[in-house]
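Thread: Newbie trying to understand structure tokens

Hi all, I'm a second-year student working on a class project, and my supervisor (Dr. K.) asked me to get a predicted structure for one chain before our next meeting. I've only ever worked with sequences, so writing a 3D structure as a token string is new to me. If someone could post the tokens and maybe explain what I'm looking at, I'd be very grateful. Here's the chain:
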Amino acid sequence: MCGVAGLFMAEGRAVDRRVLQRMTEALHSRGPDAADLWTQGPVGLGHARLSIVDLAGGAQPMSSAAGTVISYNGEIYNAPELRAALPGYRFRTLCDTEVILAVYETFGPEGFERLRGMFAFALHDPVRDLLVLHRDRFGIKPLYLLDLPQGVAFASSPKAFVQAGLAVARVADGPLQDWLARGYCLGEDALLAGVRRVLPGELVTIAGGRRAESRLPALALPRRSPPPSRASALVQLDEVLLDSVRLHCRADVPYGLFLSGGVDSSAILVAHAKLGLPPIQSFTIGFDVGPRGGKGGDAEPERARRLAQRFGSEHQALTFTEADCWTYLPRVAAYMEDPVADYAALPTWKLAETAAQSLKVVLCGEGGDEVFAGYGRYRQSWLRSWLRRLRGRESFAPVPERSAFRPAGGGPGPSRLVARQLRDLAETLPAKLLLRLDNCLMAHGLEGRTPFLDREVLQFGLGLPDRLRLSGGTGKLLLKTWLQREAPEAGAFDRKRGFTVPVAHWMERSARRLAGLLADNRALRLHLPELDAGRLFREARRETAGLRWQLLFFAVWHALHIEMPGCRDAVNVDTFALLGG
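---
Reply by user tm_fold:
Sure, no problem. This is what the structure looks like when written as tokens:
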């Protein structure tokens, strides 16, 4: 995992290396092992490296013999297979970065569809004098654009633009309304004014210092074939899941697993063990809810402990407290330049902080619900679709047009269930869940790998008949069946309560103090002048807990990124001291 940055100046202006240097330095937490720059006239690339594969030979920006240059963030898991498929290319390193250069020079941009992994990169083609920006279809790794009067800037984080003096720290009005509605922004526009996201799967071409073209590849949905039996589907699931976990474990450094005790992370642990790989380090977290007594059980730490013991993991069980909440909130907000007001970021931060003390890579279960239909809302979509079929009025739901999960034409559209999965894969997953994960882990120089977000796993999951994904009130049916068979103690069909952080309880306990601090808060006064924040926090009604957390997060984020951008001292104080200062 790394940080990328760069500039393409218009009208032949030369890149200012000092500006590029400041952009790259802003990404130090993403790449603490090394940093370097490359410039050639109007084009400049910067790179901050976290060394995972080919520790000695993977320095970037990397140039090919033909002069193509790349700055890249991510991992190409099928790099060895791609090397074998290109016997005529003379490789000089063992790094997956060079594989991207080889694929581009052999097949052009269309060859990027061959890449199996997570990535966000900038590639300069000296022959065509073009700069190509590209992200993986899932949007696991971020990439941002900033149009300038004199060219285009891009980086892994919006803070690179601010710290280099290219952008002013200001909230954009339109995205703010979107953010206030859900706690994160969908689509292209980030909350920081003028900053644009490169969308998941998008390929942007820059020529002459201006954006020239943007393409989003459509998704070829699996062809409808006779539905497999449950037995044969379980065999296929075993093959595809083990293959993905095997590829995601390719690394030249130690790796671990965030093990919540839920279905997805438990399935990864079981697959890892079935592959015969050495026991893995695992981490889980539970919650101390304070005077009410006992431990919060939503993270299922006891179930995780039993699984870790069964499979020989070196296991660490952490506890997240009320004091942690107020201590970690400014730290999380400080590293979320593109903010996500998801309180699950708090325990994720503490897990990452602990894991980074001994590891550089962790496996994570994100994507299992989207690929295998685990959410309750999918069951509602399936029921409506089933009723429509009974009435002879089956219809197909649309997927956003600006989406790499837009189905390719030439056949029937997706069912309502699949369309809902595709929408989540295109929108909520990258804009909320993956952004949260990336920010919390990369703040500690820790790479997160997500075996469920793999093209082969996706194709398998979307190709399953509904009856193997959903049954009655049970989602992820096939995956749970597989896990129950392999590890009965995982309790795959037990009722799960989800990963719930008791922030509502903690805010209630500090209601008076928060009300006093937020009654006259600058950010809330400026952007929500009609809101009586003092009353809202003082009353502390349970039904407003989500809104209160969102407003609290916004106030902290605004203080760190808008009122005093670049001030890292504020990260070392707790929430109350920050808002009171």
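A couple of things are worth pointing out once you decode it. The two ends are 35 Å apart (CA to CA). The chain has a mean pLDDT of 91. Feel free to ask follow-ups in this thread.
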